[in-house]
Write a structure and sequence with these properties.
The protein has 65 residues and is mainly α. 48% of the residues lie in helices and 8% in strands. Helix 1 crosses helix 2. Bound molecules: FE2/S2 (inorganic) cluster.
Length: 65
Amino acid sequence: MLVCDCNDVHFDAIKEAVMKHGDNIDAIMDETDAGTTCECCLEEECDKVELPLPLAIKRAMEELA
Ligand code: FES
C-alpha cells in the first residue's frame, strides 16, 4: 500500500520504522524519507497516495499493539 508517492514508500517500510520508533513521526520520516518532498502525504486527505503517513502510522501502531 503506497504511503508516499514522491519517495515510493510503502506501508511495510512504515511498519518497520514504527517497530523501532513508535509513533515518532520525525524519526519515521528520517528513516524512510516518507513525507520529505511535496509533503502531501503528511495530510490525512492527501489523494496522491493510498494511505497517507499519519494514517499509516496509526494503522501500524494498531497492528503492533
Ligand atoms: S507524496 Fe510523500 S512527500 Fe510527496
